[in-house]
Write a structure and sequence with these properties.
By secondary structure, the protein is of the alpha+beta class. It is built from nine helices and nine strands. It is about 45% helix and about 20% strand. Strand 2 and strand 3 form a beta hairpin. It starts with 12 loop residues before the first helix and ends with a helix.
Length: about 260
């Protein structure tokens, strides 16, 4: 769907700043003081204090007088997307079908900036992976979903990604040099699927295929997660790729 042109005079800058401030809270920064939030956001300490106090007043945050942290009410914002968006509802029946047929965990991810957010996860799962937690965000360079998106970027966009993103070894198996990742992206482009073997999380192997619309535009990624000890990468491809490719065909008309 084409987005309408939005003029700067129609924007509510305060809302933009408040939402940006909420997104500063993370696993790395679960609690923030006013000076910390000001440094991270670029806002003045007085403005940050007012925004944070507003969040506390409305129940989205709590404070001990020095630090601030989000409350469970903040989940309502993300849940509103899950409850109202059409795409997750349309995808779920096929996701559940693949999960039943394979007896593995299946999910759909979309790109959000330099991360992947999983918007649909199968109810069936025998794995306890960090990447399939509700609302989980995962990096693009070391995950199957992310590499499918990176493989679809043009040369300029891919160069820009590598210029701004820190590549870190999250496990002993993580490919974390630009050369290694570029080689893997070229391979994904040739094969049409991505397989990540314990690069994001030790013990977890993920196989994924891109989900494109009728015009060939990448809209999401479909991934299957299993324990690395269950089978080799070659066995995983042989056993599960047919089911993923079948789902890819079934989902194309509704994307």
């Amino acid at each position: 769907m084409k987005q309408p042109a939005i003029h700067s005079r129609d924007l509510i800058v305060g809302l933009q700043k408040g939402l940006a401030l909420m997104q500063l809270f993370s696993e790395r920064h679960p609690r923030l003081s006013v000076p910390q939030a000001a440094s991270l956001s670029g806002l003045t300490p007085s403005a940050v204090r007012r925004f944070l106090l507003t969040l506390v007043h409305d129940g989205f945050a709590e404070t001990d007088g020095r630090h601030y942290w989000l409350t469970a009410k903040a989940l309502r914002i993300g849940q509103a997307y899950v409850d109202s968006a059409q795409l997750p509802r349309m995808l779920r029946p096929i996701v559940e079908q693949v999960a039943r047929n394979t007896q593995e965990h299946v999910s759909v991810g979309v790109r959000d900036g330099d991360d992947i957010v999983h918007i649909v996860r199968s109810r069936y799962s025998h794995v306890a992976s960090l990447s399939i937690r509700p609302g989980s965000r995962v990096p693009m360079y070391c995950t199957a979903s992310g590499r499918l998106w990176l493989a679809a970027l043009d040369a300029e966009a891919l160069d820009a990604y590598f210029a701004r993103v820190e590549l870190r070894a999250l496990t002993p198996y993580t490919r974390h040099t630009e050369a290694e990742i570029r080689a893997e992206l070229a391979r994904i482009g040739e094969l049409g699927h991505a397989l990540v073997d314990q690069e994001y999380e030790v013990g977890m192997r993920v196989l994924g295929v891109p989900l494109r619309d009728r015009e060939g535009q990448l809209k999401a990624s479909l991934t299957l997660t299993t324990h690395a000890a269950r089978m080799s990468p070659e066995e995983m491809r042989e056993r599960y790729l047919p089911a993923l490719y079948e789902a890819q065909v079934l989902l194309r008309p509704i994307l």
